[in-house]
Amino acid sequence: MARITASVYTSHVPAIGVAMDLGKTQEPYYAPLFAGYEPARAWMAANTPDVVVLVFNDHANAFSLEMVPTFALGMSARYEPADEGWGARPVPPVVGQPTLSAHIAHSVIREDFDLTLVNDMPVDHGCTVPLSIMFGQPDAWPCAVIPLVVNVVQYPIPSGRRCLELGKAVRRAVESYDEDLDVQVWGTGGMSHQLQGPRAGLINQKWDNEFFERLVNDPEGQATVEHVEYVREAGSEGIELVMWLVARGAMADLAGGGAPTEVHRLYHVPASNTAAGQLILKDASTMTTFA
Ligand code: DHB
Ligand code: FE
Questions:
Q1: How far apart, in whole angstroms, are the C-alpha atoms of residue 48 and residue 105?
Q2: Alpha carbon 256 to chain centroid distance?
Q3: Is the pLDDT of residue 200 over 80?
Q4: What per-residue confidence (pLDDT) applies to 286?
């Protein structure tokens, strides 16, 4: 059967992708950030999954404001990079896993999550920057990716509770898939940042670090935190952090198993307009089997 092996959390700041694409990672501004990514990259190289369910928000590249799905699952064999601003990144196409996508859709929708199924969509920095952060600059991504797009752009957006519960449902779907696959769930976006208005540039280090602690140690409590707290404390785009709860929901402890092991944590300020965060949690079920 397929199994969840880990959850990974990371900011998806477009400028971080551009720094890699333009060979600027060793410039003084970026060198400390990329040095901070090294332990995560080394861990990922030794623990590359077969499939990543990659939770992110589209930034009006796949979906304009004419149509805003709350949760959209990619069903394709292939997704092309696209982006606003600097344009499509020169990174490999994202290769999907359509049979597992179909199984997740079947399982999760039958559990009353109303996913939009997307048979053709481009993926923007929300998806490609986390891949570059974790895998560097390969000619092809080393695993399949199933995009799971969450609306955090236009209100009303899904609650933390709904995101956590979706993660639990994704775990049940993966564990009922009859193929021997290692699957990770990645939550992306954040940490605190605000890109517009009088508070543009807002970064709240205290709140971000409390969020890390609550996400790791009290995810059910974090799931009750209202959107207005994210926006007030972490900025208008800090609301992206609610997507990390989908990945956290997929861990064994929320299905009656053991607590995950924290493999890596990074907090770096600033990266572009953002506090860049990164976290890896190894699932308890894989620890008992393979530790
Ligand atoms: C920035 C961060 C984001 O998450 C994003 O989607 C766009 C821009 C930034 O820090 O500039
Ligand atoms: Fe974003």
A1: 24
A2: 23
A3: yes
A4: 63
Cβ–ligand 1 distance for 171 under 6 Å, the answer: no
State which residues form the domain around 176.
3-290
Q: Is 125 a catalytic residue?
A: yes
Q: If phi over 0 gives left and psi between -120 and 50 gives alpha, with beta otherwise, what is residue 200?
A: beta
pLDDT at 205: 98
Query: How many domains would you assign to the chain?
Result: 1
Q: Which residues of 248-265 are buried (b: 16+ CB within 10 A; e: fewer)?
A: bbbbbbbbeeeebeebbb
CB 258 within 8 A of CB 286: no
Q: Report how far apart the first and last C-alpha atoms of the chain are (Å, whole number).
A: 19
Measure Cα distances from 222 to 132, 170, 210, 225, 227 in Å: 28, 19, 10, 5, 11
The active-site residue out of 12, 59, 103, 193 is: 193
pLDDT over 90 percentage in the chain: 97
> pLDDT (tens digit, 9 = 90+) per residue, 59-100?
999 999 999 999 999 999 999 999 998 999 999 999 999 999
Q: Which residue's CA is minimally distant from atom 4 of ligand 1?
A: 13
**What's the token pair of residue 277?**
């965060």
**Considering the entire predicted model, what is its pTM?**
0.97
HEC string for 103-157? HHHHHHHHCCCCCEEECCCCECHHHHHHHHHHHCCCCCCCCEEEEEEECCCCCCC
Which helix (H) or strand (E) covers residue 278, if one does? strand 274-282
**In the prediction, which pLDDT does 285 show?**
84
Give the residue-averaged pLDDT of 170-182: 97
Cα torsion 34, 59, 152, 252: sign? negative
Compute the mean pLDDT over every residue in the chain, rounded to the nearest whole number: 96
Residue 274 CB less than 6 A away from ligand 1: yes
CATH code at position 282: 3.40.830.10
